[in-house]
Amino acid sequence: MISQWQLRAAFARRLSDMYGREVPAYTTLVDVSHEVNEDVLRAEGANAERLGTISRVTAERHGAIRVGTPQELEQVARIFGALGMHPVGFYDLREAAASAVPVVSTAFRPIDGEELARNPFRVFTSMLTPADPRFFDADLRARLDTFLASRRLFPPELLTLADRAGTDRGLPDEDATRFLQLAVEAFELSCEPIDRSWYATLEKVSAVAADIGGVRSTHINHLTPRVLDIDELYRRMTERGIEMIDTIQGPPRWSGPDVLLRQTSFRALAEPRALRAPDGSVSSGALRVRFGEVEARGIALTREGRARYDTLLARVDEQAAQHPTADRAELARTLWAEDFPGSEHELARRGLGYFTYHAAADRPLGAPPTTLGELLDQGWVRAEPIVYEDFLPRSAAGIFQSNLSGEGSKNTDHEGAAYDSGWLSDAIGREVLDPFALYERQQNHSLDHVARDLDLFAAPR
Questions:
Q1: Predicted local distance difference test score (pLDDT) of residue 291
Q2: CB count, 10 Å around CB of 117?
Q3: Residue 6 has pLDDT above 90, yes or no
Q4: What is the pLDDT of residues 243-262, one digit of tens each?
């Protein structure tokens, strides 16, 4: 039997090979990421691996795909479920983007610490929202629903094998090979001609809507390596003549701890596509829908820590609006230095970041204190940061937006259709998990061990 994590690792490798053939600049991105990671490891030693071993970081990828209907998303959930990946988090990019991005999203990923260490492959999966009248009037929605209902993204054989792998937690060798072949093929860029008129109609609403609902297949939109110094990668990619988007999304580069997620990408490339005219003739054209993203991951923040982060982002927006010629990154660094913990220790003791805790081997003698802050301050426990495994809606929307050819259209006279985590859970028949709850469970499990090791009456908080 090929286990689920082995299937996941093999799928990530095959997908990476396929995407590198389709988008050669992605291979350059991976090569530069490896170079930067090796340089950081040489310069920083063991500290460079504080948020993951170099082998994990080097192998790490997240992909992004887009689908059109709850039924298609349910099928995606079955395919990734075969790989031991669960839907985690609900992201509403309709509200996070200034441009028209009519999608809601979740991310499929492993949730167990051991599974994440084996292979942390994730897929950020967006679904079109035809029911939202701000983007689609009744006529266009009806046409779009009809088009989406008429297509089939995934062959029945793939879904049957996926269900078997999910039930049996793996597949025999021959079935595993076939499953991987079909799964990778499902996300290749199709050569089938695109109805130029229909695509253009949707593109007036949103380039994202056209990429999802204007074609009869899905495809991998980007595949993202992880890098230990994203600013250095940005510089080196630019030196190689590859056009990057204008900014690095997420927290600023500063002297304090890395938190959450920083992302950037090279700009969407003009790729040749076959286009069918109304008279049935086919010509060669080009579409810009796929790009190369890269990420640097930091420490997962608690709800309170995340609220602090969101408040700081809002303050940066305010100051940038008041001082349009100022350097936004410098404004952010100044605000972070004023109002965000400058060390992992402070992040932990103030309950703003998630950590696993362990009784220190060289802890003091005598009776230990009972609060977590005192245990940390007095050297009774040590804190190991928990890496942030998820996404930021504003950053994801910023990446989408930076790679769009136009703003699209959004009628704000209408009220948006309601989508939330509960709706998405019902639509795909699987609970969309709360990422905060996953991190808290991991942290609390370690605190229970601390209580036993230190013979405390209750786990410290």
A1: 80
A2: 14
A3: yes
A4: 898 889 999 999 999 999 99
Residue 460 maps to a domain: no
CA distance 22 to 164: 30
C-alpha distances in Å from residue 285, one per residue of 83, 105, 193, 198, 276:
36, 29, 10, 15, 10
| pLDDT in the model for residue 258 | 95
> Any idea what the CATH number is for the domain that residue 243 is in?
3.10.180.80
CB 245 within 8 A of CB 266: yes
CA 275 to chain centre: 31
pLDDT above 70 for 406: no
- Look at the chain and count its residues: 461
- Whether residues 226 and 370 share a domain: the answer is no
Given CA atoms 92, 14, 75, 408 in this order, what sign does their dihedral have? positive
Contacts 24+ apart (CB under 8 A), 120-123: 120/56, 120/60, 120/389, 121/8, 121/9, 121/11, 121/12, 121/60, 121/61, 121/62, 121/63, 121/83, 121/85, 122/61, 122/62, 122/63, 122/85, 122/389, 123/62, 123/63, 123/64, 123/65, 123/80, 123/85
**Residue 367, domain extent:** 304-384+446-453
Residue range 361-385, pLDDT digits in tens = 999 999 999 999 999 999 999 999 9
**Which segments within 186-315 are labelled E, that is strand?**
194-195, 222-225, 261-276, 282-297
Question: What does the CA dihedral 381, 382, 385, 386 come to, rounded to 10 degrees?
Answer: -40
Residues 261/265/271/274 CA torsion (nearest 10 deg): 20
- Residue 244 belongs to a domain: yes
Span 91-124, pLDDT tens digits: 999 888 777 889 999 999 999 989 998 999 999 9
**CA atoms of 75 and 187, how far apart (whole Å):** 13
Contact between 33 and 227 (Cβ < 8 Å):
yes
Angle in degrees, 0-180, between the axes of helices 138-149 and 196-205, rounded to the nearest 10 = 130
pTM above 0.90, yes or no: yes
Assess whether 264 and 371 both reside in one domain. Answer: no
